[in-house]
Amino acid sequence: MSKIRVLVVDDSVFMRKIITDMIQEDARFEVVDTAKNGLEAVDKTKRLNPDVITLDIEMPEMNGLEALKRIMAEHPVPVIMLSSLTEEGAKETIAALELGAIDFVRKPSGSISLDLFKVKSLLMEKLSIAIQTRVSRAMPAPRPAPAPAPNRASISAPVMKPPVSAGSKELIDSMPASRIDKLVAIGTSTGGPRALQQVVTGLSEKFPAPILIVQHMPPNFTKSLANRLDATSRIRVIEASDGDRLRNGVAYIAPGGWHMIVKRDDAGYKVRLTKDDPRSGHRPSVDMLFESLLPFRELKRHIVLMTGMGSDGAKGMQALRQAGAVSTIAESSETCVVYGMPRAAAELNCLTHQLPLYQIAAKLNELVQSQS
Length: 372
Description:
Elements: E1 4-9, H1 13-24, E2 29-35, H2 38-48, E3 52-56, H3 64-74, E4 79-83, H4 87-99, E5 103-106, H5 120-130, H6 168-173, E6 182-188, H7 192-201, E7 211-215, H8 221-232, E8 236-239, E9 250-253, E10 259-265, E11 268-274, H9 286-292, E12 300-305, H10 314-322, E13 327-331, H11 341-347, E14 353-355, H12 357-370
Parallel strand pairs: 1-2, 1-3, 3-4, 4-5, 6-7, 6-12, 7-9, 8-9, 12-13, 13-14
Antiparallel strand pairs: 10-11
Helix pairs in contact: 2-3, 3-4, 4-7, 4-8, 7-12, 9-10, 10-11
């Protein structure tokens, strides 16, 4: 059986050697070549047609993000990013995922570090997933779905939101309280940041429900994901904190390493974060979020599963459908990077809608606004 052909891209000779050795210890893989910058990566991708690429971000001549744009536009190949643990590294990684990278592996410390051996098993896992993914020029680029036409009285200049900052929680807490009778919950994994960029940016201004999001992602990166989505969306997007009161028109992203569930008290609905054991290997877990919504039959619940490996969220979606959820939406195979989690839900026959990615935001706007 032919081996999986990998192109390794990093500006460090030492790091290229380390990554190459790690990959070639697995008999399923072979490193067909290496590249020291983005220009070489683009050229060798076209000439060698590798099955998968590992791509560093910080490189001379052409950095990883520019190379990724070229590769996705000219010769799409599954790409795993190598990311630093810095705040800037997290921002760049989220940008890479939105541009079409399949996933990333964190560098435990600097770009030249023997600590990288610690992530060998994770790297091989990500490479194995990457070769099962769908990557093509035809994959739709993120773009906002059209919002419902506003009433004439509401037509005005675009709303300018304050940027996300340390005071964002206070800003949201100061928003006028509104009655919550609807709720949207979204689960996703591999390919999720790109999918979320399209769906969340397509939700209408003053969306009349809170949105709870579980994206399988490690600590530190979920904050960058929330900030980036907030900057490009009509709604407010934050990384959730324990005790956050749910507000209409606010999306709450579960922080990496924490389960996010919903509780109710006399004052309304709020986020609770827990360090309970991982579910199906995940913390945060989509099933944990979905199952926490089961008691709230008074809410019109709209549940969404998008691209991702495995089955997290499928059983929770099924239980919610049986408990009266208004809509259960799964992304269809034609746009999924990995048709795993949505497939699991479809096989449980618990879907009200199966839609391509570019129709999900419009459907949520239609369903939720029609109930207002």
